[in-house]
Design a protein that fits this description.
The protein is an all-beta fold. Helix content is 0%, strand content 51%. It has no helices and eleven strands.
C-alpha cells in the first residue's frame, strides 16, 4: 500500500509563498510513479493542481502556471509544491497523490495539508 504524507501548509497573506512537501513510501511505490498535487476548497470539488512524471516533466492547471512549481527528489521519495504569489483563491486543503508512470489513475492520496491565504 502506497502511503503519502504531506507537510508544510499554513496561513499566509496574499503575495506570500509556501512550500509543501509529500513523502511517499510503502509497497507498490517506486520512483516510476507519477506524483500529483490536488486541492479542495470548502464547498468545492477537488481539482488537480499539477503533476510530475518520473522523468521530471511537469504539467499544471492554468490558474497556477507561472506561480507554482512541482519538483521531486527521488533519493528522498519526496515531491514538492512551491507556491509563490499566493492569492486567496488558492485557499484549500492540498493533497498529494500517486499514479502510474503516465499520470493515469491517481489511486493513492495523502491526508492533506491546509493552506489559507488571506487578503
Amino acid at each position: 500500500q502506497v502511503q503519502l504524507v504531506e507537510s508544510g501548509g499554513g496561513s499566509v497573506q496574499a503575495g506570500g509563498s509556501l512550500r509543501l512537501s509529500c513523502a511517499a513510501s510503502g509497497y507498490g511505490y517506486s520512483n516510476n510513479n507519477c506524483l500529483g498535487w490536488f486541492r479542495q476548497a470548502p464547498g468545492e470539488e477537488r481539482e488537480g493542481v499539477g503533476g510530475i512524471y518520473s522523468t521530471g516533466s511537469t504539467y499544471y492547471v492554468d490558474s497556477v502556471k507561472g506561480r507554482f512549481t512541482i519538483s521531486r527528489d527521488n533519493a528522498k521519495n519526496t515531491v514538492y509544491l512551491d507556491m509563490n504569489n499566493l492569492i486567496p483563491e488558492d485557499t484549500g486543503m492540498y493533497f498529494c497523490a500517486a499514479a502510474d508512470e503516465y499520470c493515469r489513475g491517481f489511486a493513492y492520496f495523502g491526508q492533506g495539508t491546509q493552506v489559507t491565504v488571506s487578503s
